[in-house]
């Protein structure tokens, strides 16, 4: 028994000794570490704690570049010198701001107002002014010892190569707002970041916006960087190739210079938007550094509405371009056929009202093909009366009018195709038969956008398919790797037989190439263009009103329409042109479409010839 007690005692002593040795070793290691930190490295850490600190700086990612369909650069990035302040380092702040104002020329009140407006950590940089320019940068660098807490960061800034070109299509950037910061769509963004606010910059923002990087830096007591400890590079956004043809776009902009209106072109077989002009335009560069209140007020108070994308947001009576729909409906409902004629004496009597034709002397006997060619109102009055508003509305909607086309640009308008039920619900008054007469020629309550009329025209050109308008051709990484291709999508079909389509196309051919066609003055030598003119009245003209021309002012003059496609046998381009208050489609809108078509087809031929030469050289 005594022996067992002796063994147990010895075992406990050994265990206790082992524990004590472990504790001793821990204290030795702790002491050694403290000795290293306080004695060996003490001076350096004391310097760091008293004068320097470690901070994390964000490296903003450059946005992806934007190209046209042929690889021509439209938008890239340039360096911007952004002036910021860190409140905790800028002491005394009043004196620092006073000196900064003197050196840079920025009003002291403006600088202080920016600081007071921002509520953030005293160690977080506050952006005072974007893109201060090289002179201000040099002044800050020369006097940086007098400006503690002031820093200038070189950041990528959007650079739009053409001042106003394709502004409504490409869009612009703006600073992210608090509401957008809460949106998962903008995850990873921070206050002060610039995001797409309009156009393709907005709808394709998730591709164009890259991933920010960062660096860990050591700064001194004045907030100046002493050394960079670690860097994680930013990742540039992906490059976007739009469907736009920049040569055609520029030509269309030149043609609409000084006018208010829209011109838009599409590939009939794909839905690719080749050009989109809304005139007058705006300079997207005004928004990059933050637009001034004065400049913004000028834009939104301009009666010609430069900020509206008239191609997709403008709603106008379609006028005689709508006769395409009336012809299709009449033929499909067998109210008319190829040989059916109506006599036009220059007017149409309905009840006690006389509806006049645009040609006072009348067109005589006309069938559907001739009626389209000469744009005879009386023929379509007769067809509309027999169709009724609801059947006519059904065909119009099936042709893509009165509803969004689903183009990937924000703010697209619906337009309006009226029905009897719609009027009853809106006004409480039943539909009147005389209203159908006006609807049949595109007047009355009818409202469409230039893009909707383009969709219809393109559908007639390609045999009936209504394609979703496509805005981007492809998206690639900066190294050229394909990420996504634009997908052609059919969103509807014109409800018409091949016979109906053939008759309508024959009439549209005659509009330009016939001896009495309303757009015969815009025919193109060597190219067979098909089209339809339109004159959309804003105020009515009473029969026998001889003072009409004197009373009407420019803002009440009719809008001018022209829709077209070419070549007639193998359509490569469809165009829709609307000139506000241009009066006559044949004189104001048709010449614009003609030159757009000539420009595009010339480019296609040049490209084809170049490809042939290249092939032969091989």
How would you sum up this structure, described in words?
- This protein is of the alpha+beta class and 618 residues long.
- It has two domains: 55-242, Penicillin-binding protein 2a (Domain 2); 246-293 and 308-611, 3-Layer(aba) Sandwich (Beta-lactamase).
- Strands 2, 3, 4, 5, 10, 18 and 19 form a seven-stranded mixed β-sheet that branches.
- α10 packs antiparallel against α23 (585-617), α14 crosses α16 (377-387) and α15 runs parallel beside α21.
- It is elongated.
Note the beta-strand portion.
15-25%
Largest sheet: 7 strands, mixed
Number of helices: 23
- The gross shape turns out to be elongated
CATH topology of the largest domain, anyone? Beta-lactamase
Helix and strand content put the structural class at alpha+beta
- For the terminal residues, how far apart are their CA atoms? 107 Å
> How many structural units, i.e. domains?
2
Rg from C-alpha positions? 35 Å
Number of strands: 23
Helix content: 25-40%
Question: Which CATH top level class of the largest domain fits?
Answer: Alpha Beta
CATH architecture of the largest domain: 3-Layer(aba) Sandwich
Mean pLDDT: 88
So, the CATH homologous superfamily of the largest domain? DD-peptidase/beta-lactamase superfamily
